[in-house]
From TrEMBL:
GO cellular component, one term: plasma membrane
Chief localization: membrane
Official protein name in the record: Alanine:cation symporter family protein
InterPro entries in UniProt: Na/Ala_symport
GO molecular function: amino acid:sodium symporter activity
Top-rank taxon: Bacteria
Length: 507
C-alpha cells in the first residue's frame, strides 16, 4: 500500500508562520479577526504621515529638484566611500528585487487590484520616511580607526539619541540580521532559482549554487565593489524593464481605463469574486498593499540608510532627497509598471480549468503571474521561450542578483555593530568577521533557493516588521532633527559621542 510522503519541516512551518504574519500585518489569527485594526500598517503609515506633515510635504514638493540632482550626484562632494549616485544605486539595488516582480503579483493575489492603491499610499508616506533615513544617515556617521565612514539606523540611534538607547540599536541589528537572511537572501535566492528554472530548466539547488558563487565573487570586495556593480547594472536594467512594460501597455492601451477603475474601486470596496480570484475584503487589500509596499521599497525599514551613509557628501538634505527618489523609482515607477501589465494585458489564461482574460484572474501565482502577463504581451518566441518571459526572467535574475549583493552589506553592518559591543573587539577582528559573514551569506543563498516559497514570503513579512519597528521608533524620536535637516541645518540636533577602546573609537 502506497504511503504519502511526510511533509517537510518547511511545509509544517507554513501555517504557524502565516498566522504570525497575518497578526502583525492584518490583526487576524487563523483567518479570524483578533484586533479591529492592522497593527504594523497603522504604525508604518502613522509615523510616515507624522513625518510627511512635519516636513510640510517636502518629498512631493521637492521631487522635481531631486530628479535634477541625480546628475550632480555622480560627483563626490564630501567624505565617504562611494559617490552619492552610487549610494542611491546601491540602495536601489537592495530595493528593486523580487518584490517588484513577484511581490506585486502576490499583493494582487492576496488583496485584489485595490492592493496597488495602498502600495502607492505606502510609497508616498515612504518617501518621507526615506528622506528621514537618508538625511540622518549623513548627519550621524561613525569613523573607524582607519578612517572609514559608515552608518545607518544603529549609528543615528547611538549618536542622535545617546548611549541609553543602545538597546534599541541592538534590537534593530538583530532584526536586520533576521531580515537580511530571509528577505534579503532566502526570498531572493528562491526567486532567482525559479527564474533560472523557467528559462534554462536548471534544478533549483544548482541555480542557487551558481548564484552563490557569483555573489561571493563580488561581495569579497566589500561596499566599494558592490557600489561599482550596482552603479552599472541598476540604471540599465530598470530602464530596460520600464521600456518593455510601457510598450506592453501601449499595445493594450484600450484596457488601461478599466485597470485604473479596478484599482481605485478595489481600494475602498470588497472585491467581487472573478475567475480564480476568490475576492478580498478592504482590510486584505490594505494589508497586502502596505506589507508588499514595505517589502519592495524598504522605506521605514532602515536598510537603505546603511547604503546612503557611505555617500561622499557632507549635506544631509541632498542625500535625503536621493533616498526619497529611491522609494519613488522603486514603487511609484517600477512596481506600478508591473501591476499595470498584470492587470491590463489579455491572454489565454485559465482558472480552475476555465478560460479567463487576465493573468491576475488565473491560477498563476507570484513571478509566474508576472511572467505570464509579459509573455501574453510579447508572445513571439526565441528558442521556444516567449520574448515576454525572457525579458521578465532576465530582469528578475539581475534585480535579485544585485539585491543579494546589497543586503549582504546590510547584514555585515548589523553583525559588526553587535561585535563592536563586545569588549576587546578590534578592526582586524571586524575584517575576519566580515569574511565569515560573506561565506555564511553564500551558503544561505544555496539553502534558501529550494525552500517553499510561501514559507519564505511569510517569514519575510515578519522579519521586515522586526527590523522596521525599532527604526520607526528612532525616526519618530529624531523627527525634530529631520525637520531641521530639511531646512538646510546640517548640524541639527545633539551629537552624543564618547571615547571607547573598541571600534569605532568614538561613539
Amino acid at each position: 500500500m502506497a504511503t504519502s510522503q511526510a511533509p517537510s519541516l518547511g511545509e509544517r512551518l507554513i501555517q504557524p508562520v502565516t498566522n504570525l504574519s497575518d497578526f502583525i500585518w492584518g490583526g487576524t489569527w487563523n483567518g479570524a479577526e483578533v484586533l479591529p485594526f492592522p497593527p504594523m500598517t497603522i504604525v508604518l503609515l502613522g509615523i510616515g504621515l507624522w513625518i510627511m506633515v512635519g516636513l510640510k510635504f517636502y518629498p512631493i514638493i521637492k521631487l522635481g529638484s531631486a530628479f535634477k540632482g541625480l546628475f550632480a550626484g555622480r560627483k563626490s562632494q564630501g567624505e565617504g566611500e562611494i559617490s552619492p549616485f552610487a549610494a542611491l544605486s546601491t540602495a536601489l539595488s537592495g530595493q528593486v528585487g523580487t518584490g517588484n516582480l513577484a511581490g506585486v503579483a502576490t499583493a494582487i493575489a492576496l488583496g485584489g487590484p485595490g492592493a496597488i492603491f495602498w502600495m502607492w499610499v505606502t510609497a508616498l508616506f515612504g518617501m518621507a520616511l526615506a528622506f528621514a533615513e537618508g538625511s540622518l544617515a549623513i548627519r550621524y556617521r561613525e569613523r573607524t580607526s582607519d578612517g572609514v565612514l559608515r552608518g545607518g539606523p544603529m549609528t543615528y540611534i547611538m549618536m542622535g539619541l545617546g548611549k541609553k538607547w543602545t538597546w534599541l540599536a541592538v534590537v534593530f541589528c538583530l532584526g536586520t540580521l533576521f531580515s537580511a537572511l530571509v528577505t534579503g537572501n532566502s526570498i531572493q535566492a528562491n526567486a532567482v532559482a525559479d527564474g533560472l528554472n523557467e528559462l534554462f530548466g536548471i534544478e533549483e539547488w544548482l541555480g542557487g549554487l551558481i548564484v552563490a558563487i557569483l555573489v561571493f565573487i563580488v561581495i569579497i570586495g566589500g561596499i566599494k565593489s558592490i557600489g561599482n556593480v550596482a552603479e552599472k547594472i541598476v540604471p540599465f536594467m530598470a530602464a530596460t524593464y520600464i521600456v518593455m512594460a510601457v510598450i506592453a501597455l501601449i499595445l493594450n492601451f484600450g484596457d488601461l481605463g478599466e485597470t485604473f477603475g479596478l484599482i481605485f474601486h478595489g481600494a475602498f470596496n470588497p472585491q467581487a469574486a472573478s475567475g480564480g480570484f476568490v475576492g478580498a475584503a478592504i482590510i486584505l487589500a490594505i494589508r497586502a498593499g502596505v506589507a508588499r509596499g514595505l517589502f519592495s521599497n524598504e522605506a521605514g525599514q532602515g536598510s537603505t540608510a546603511i547604503a546612503h551613509a557611505v555617500a561622499q557628501t557632507n549635506d544631509p538634505e541632498t542625500q535625503g532627497r536621493m533616498a526619497m527618489l529611491g522609494t519613488f523609482i522603486d514603487t511609484i515607477v517600477i512596481c506600478t509598471m508591473t501591476a499595470l501589465v498584470i492587470l491590463t494585458v489579455r491572454g489565454d489564461f485559465t482558472a480552475g480549468g476555465e478560460a479567463v482574460a487576465h493573468a491576475w484572474q488565473s491560477d498563476r501565482v507570484g513571478f509566474e503571474m508576472t511572467s505570464g502577463a509579459f509573455a501574453a504581451a510579447f508572445p513571439v518566441e526565441i528558442a521556444s521561450v516567449p520574448i515576454g518571459t525572457l525579458v521578465a526572467s532576465i530582469a528578475l535574475i539581475l534585480f535579485v542578483f544585485t539585491t543579494l549583493l546589497t543586503w549582504s552589506y546590510y547584514g555585515e553592518r548589523a553583525i559588526t555593530f553587535l561585535y563592536d559591543r563586545v569588549k576587546g573587539s578590534s578592526r582586524s577582528g571586524e575584517k575576519k568577521l566580515h569574511m565569515a559573514w560573506r561565506v555564511l551569506w553564500c551558503v544561505v543563498i544555496f539553502l534558501g533557493a529550494a525552500q517553499p516559497s510561501e514559507l519564505v514570503w511569510r517569514l519575510g513579512d515578519i522579519s521586515n516588521a522586526a527590523m522596521a519597528l525599532p527604526n520607526l521608533l528612532a525616526l519618530a524620536l529624531l523627527s525634530g532633527v529631520v525637520f531641521k535637516l530639511a531646512q538646510g541645518q546640517r548640524d541639527a540636533g545633539p551629537t552624543h559621542t564618547a571615547e571607547t577602546p573598541e571600534e569605532p573609537e568614538e561613539y
